Amino acid sequence: MKYKFIGLLIAVLCSAATFAQITVKGTVKDKSAVPIPGVNVFVKGTQTSVSTDFDGKYVIVVPNKEAQLEFSFMGFVTQTIKVDQRTVVDVVLSDNNQTLDEVVVVGYATVKKKDVTSSIASVKGKELQTMTVGNVTESLQGKVAGVQITGAGGPGAQPRVLIRGISTVNLSTDPLYVVDGIPMGTSINFLSNNEIESMDVLKDASASAIYGSRASNGVILITTKKGKAGKTKFTVDMSTGYQIMNKPYDMANAENYATILNTAYTNSGYSEYLPNPEQYRGKTTDWWGAGIDRTSSVTNASIGVSGGSEKNTYAISLNYYNSDSFYDIGGWKRVTARIANDFKFTDKFSAGVTLNPRYETWGSPSNWADFVKIDPITPIYKPADQLNGTENEYSIYARSPSYVWNPIAAVKRYDDYTDLYNLNSNAYLQYEPIKGLIIRTQGSVEFGNKVWNKFSPDFVIDAAHEKAEINSVERKATTNVDWTWQSTATYSRKFAEKHNVSLMGGVTMENYDSSDVWGYGEGVPNNSESMREVSAATKNRNSSGTSWSSSLMSYISRLSYNFDSKYYLTASFRRDGSSKFMAENKWANFPAASASWRISNEDFMANASSLVNNLTFRAGWGRVGNQNLPSSVYQSNIGQGYYVIDGNVVDTSYPSTMANKDIRWEIVEDINFGLDFGLWKNKISGTLEYYQKTTKDMLFVKQFPTYSGFPSYATIWTNVGSMRSNGIDLLLSYKDKKGDFSYGADLTFTTVNVKMVSLSTDGEKLYGSSNRTLTVQGEEPGYFYGYVADGLFQNQTELNSHTDEHGTKMQPYAQVGDVRFKDVNGDGKLDDKDRTKIGSPWADYNVGLNLNFAYKNFDLVANFYSSIGNDLVNQNISDLYNGASLTNKVSGLDQMAWHGEGTSNYIPRLSKDDNNENFTKFSSLYVEDGSFVRMKNLQLGYSLYNKFGFDKLRISLSGQNLWTWTKYSGVDPEVGGGVLGSGFGGWNYPVQPTILMGLNVAF
Amino acid sequence: MKKLSFLFLLTFFTILFTGCQNDEADFPSSDNPTVAVSTTEIYGAPNRKFEIKATLADDLGLKNVRIQIPELDLDKVINFATDPLLTSYNLSYFFEVPADRGVSEAFVIKLTITDVSGNSVDQNINLRLDGEFSTPAINMITPKEGAVVLLSSSNQLPVNFVVNDDSGIDYVQVKCAALGIDETVQLTGAPQSYTFNKTYTLPVTAASYVLSITARDKFKIPNTGTLNINVVATNEYPAIYLCDQPKGTNLTTDAAGVPMYFHEKTGQDFEFKYYADSNNKEIYFLGQEADFAPHCFGLNGSGNLVDNVTASPIVLPTKGYYKIKVNPSTLAYTVTKYTPTSKVWADVANGVWNDTEALRKPFVSVCGEGVKDSNWDTWNAWVQTGLHLVNNPDNPYQLVGEVTLTGSSVKITFTGQWWNPQWRLIKNGIATMSPGENGNGAYSAAAGVYKVILDTELERAFITKK
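YS: structure for the whole thing
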């Protein structure tokens, strides 16, 4: 109240001091007469603006009666009202239920959402900012139908993003990211989610073909925040909290460990490994407690200022992100600034420039699994009687007989960090010589310098097994200078009232230059911080350096036409020339076409307009490419080898890779059919799409046939094989409001089916991940391939009956309690031919559910994501259940493992030798249902408007990844990987539960 | 209403019958299957396999046969394919009697044969565990496998062996087609032991012969054993071996290297390089690899070289490397000590695997087959630290280690990262350094733990039972 009074007083004083100024007040409500807080009230042509308070009321001073007030608020239609003689202007804002007037970025242009003819999904930056993440795609998970995102734990980790499945086997599956019109490669780690205004995902080729040879994995267009005309606005957005690291397994204590290993030894006919286990009671070493932090901090903060006039707008932000590792050292820090300035010199001439300096530093140990696996009897430090006082600080740790290197000592030695310095600048000039014709040229330059430093101290924990007798130091500096330049001319015109045409043409050029230099040395006089320089090395100094570059030149064009906003047609064409290919195939064409029929605009739908607000049918076709192969495939390369001849090491050379002058782009063609709908004033809306993608001329690295004379390790890239995928994307949205209570739900549903149509030769078998996956014609790529574990031999009779028809044992070394492997082909032998498909890493479908509720000042957001029907390989089973190694096992394994008929049909008997290869044979024993449902985010917020001198003040409490349902017993069900090695879970850094407090201030 | 009820019932029973139908094909009724066993009494023994043989038949088709011996935990079902139907089947099923059963025990084997019509018949067979299955043991006294007969000394081939068998010996046979030997000794009274001793005369031309010795016992189901002995008759020694083991040592227990094959040969001049690991090392030269007889070269009382199994050893006075020349025809030999100049592979115990050549340090490990934890992958050789060799502190030219042989054929290459460095173990214990001869030699050795010495100066490997 006090603040309101002061505000009024200031307003009155100002009005008194300024002749002809008028004070206007009023209330802003929605159609249900509910006041709307936080509405921006802006005097057009000035920088004056205010926000409505919690009761929807405002007071503003306008210069004269001709002034126009603009009322805007997200989710409502913006209204502009002339003041005239009034001093009270009450406004009723209409719900912007139909979001069809929203603008969508389509690549080198923007169009209204209603005019989109291809498959494009948009997500507002506000939705992405509900989560605190290092990589914004993690926040995108479950929010876009057709996009499968597999989270990755660890500071700086990059989630796997698949847009409509996979269309390549050997190349990267990451989409292309384009920020403010500039292609930025296949990683988005550099961007804070607070910098983002919106993301648009180009899913089908008819949309993405304008990006040609890099669009086969889809394109994600990101628009960063820009300033808006009006008073200067300051914003502070901050969230901070803790990531929780739970110990993934209940491991055996010292006594139980001894019992488990003794059982394994005696079962194999050896004497006990650690006799009298009770002597270890109460002597368990808590490795996890000593080296892993239960919580680690995470902070995401941004300070922004924006505003401007009609001639010049600006937006400046400073963003900070920090994610500590759960060791006492290391993590990831990122500091970015974004300074955007847009100028409108005349009605015809405008320009803009954005500067984006960035600093990142990262590095952390990765041996957390060792804290679980190391035996619980070994102490952390050597006992006093084993120290002689001459050891350095890295040599005082104890050695574990389990062959796991002392993890506390490893963390102590860790010194492996990378610093990144980067400046990206982006500028444009735009000229509109005649109405409807826009000529725009835009360029960007990026300078980057990445410096990696590593120091490995000398230490002797055990003279035979765990030592480095000499220290070493390394430094590698990589510098990149990239530039892009793109110029377009767009002409848009409406004629004969109903014909709308837009034609765009342009040319783009991109160039990427990088170089690196590496230095190495050993024998630094001591391990002190100040000596960790290559110049201080006294032995074995070495260095190397190289440079590489690639470039791309393209011609682009697009024609858009619609008749009476009913019938739409879009066609685009891109011609790319890449330095990665030789003259014959340097250039390739990427055409696309799409059409839509806005059925709801037809006259015959007029009677149904109260029910059907939008009904649009879309169809599209396009061709895109994938050139994510090494820059030098057009080169023949000589490899360097060493042979010992007459006792001397002799340098040798051999042809390592051979040029293929016929190499060309991997081509993906797709068709897409979509139906957009909005019902009951768009309370229910959504999109249903079907697509089919076909990849041709897939790029493979092949070995030469033996008769060619080339060595077997010489390879050549070649275009062979094809694959096809299809699926359905569904987005279903519901939103409504009852009085002060508003609520909404978005459901996304994604299916992907992939099959290999052909490989390089008939019947070719493409193995991956150490022969544990197989890719063959007619099947999905990279399925799990191994033996079928058919339970355990429960008794001697079962064991004796596992023979061929002549009594020959199929598993001659098996004993009761061992795994029974299935004779799949029934030939009475257990061999390589009995390996079969034992699982699929690919989900049957993914579902995302995003809920939002608001009641008065409270708001609640809940995001769920699920992957259903995929399998995962739990590689940790061997570490946890296999008695053959000396690493620690899960608590109670002696009772969990088979120890008598009926005691287990899953965990084999404990055995020191594992002669039956229970664990060394890759079998379905390792394969588990990888389906999961995860609550990605739950956020409760409370907002205040026009209080304490702030336009808006919001506090929030949120939890990320707090709840996960899964049958998978591994560390985390979110497991990525390449196409031929996907779904192999192990000691991967888990996606951690996180608790956060948030504060958002605007004034 | 009636109509509705009728429709409901119709639907219900349609679903019921559809849901309950048997997926298996129906077969018409047929006659019982038949079974004809080769014997109704089978002899077995603890820890030994016996065979169940029978001929099964059915006029329509066999479905399965079940073999049961509940006391021995056997319950095996053999299912037959039904497309096409199988009307006859020769059962031949082996089963091993557990080692802990007594030889006086007897059991009943129950065969149950079922045809596709569901008819089944049982057939019982008696199983006795008091069977005798050992072949007669042939203990060869002379000639030993690989024996060399030096024709210039004598063309007589004494053949002397002893045969033993618990159930008695029926006959003994000696054959060699090249020598025209085909001699059968039919024994009476089934003695449990018999000694054969006879000398044959060889042609004076050099040749190789195979003596085949067969013995059969008198058990109800007779057991026959055969032993083949290779003999070389020559005017010159094809090879001479250096042996530093005391006389009487069994020279066939090593996997490779003992006795040591010569290094160079010109006519009958043989040259060895040899490392004496101690002062006063005693050595002999042998004309054959497996035994000290018949040709063992040592010193007589006068200090001259003689071919005599009773000869005294040649003594190398001090520890170190020697070049030794010997001619078994002229009985001349020389011994010269020398200092090696080949590369010393030092500090291999601290080898480092690294993709960057500059950061790599040589290690030497074992790749191959027939060796526990080993395969042909050099990365595996690196990670299997138990296979790593270390420097012999007493001799910089020797790398030593330990391997466990599995009992199957052994092939070995000693290697570092990506076959650099590498010593390929070819035939005769020669560990040739790359790029030497191709083709790993195959060695047979009993399962067990063996000591490995790789001598990089000699380019020889010695793999001896620990």
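YS: worth flagging: The domain at 2-92 of chain A is CATH 2.60.40.4130 (Immunoglobulin-like).
IM: good catch. Also Chain A is about 10% helix and 50% strand.
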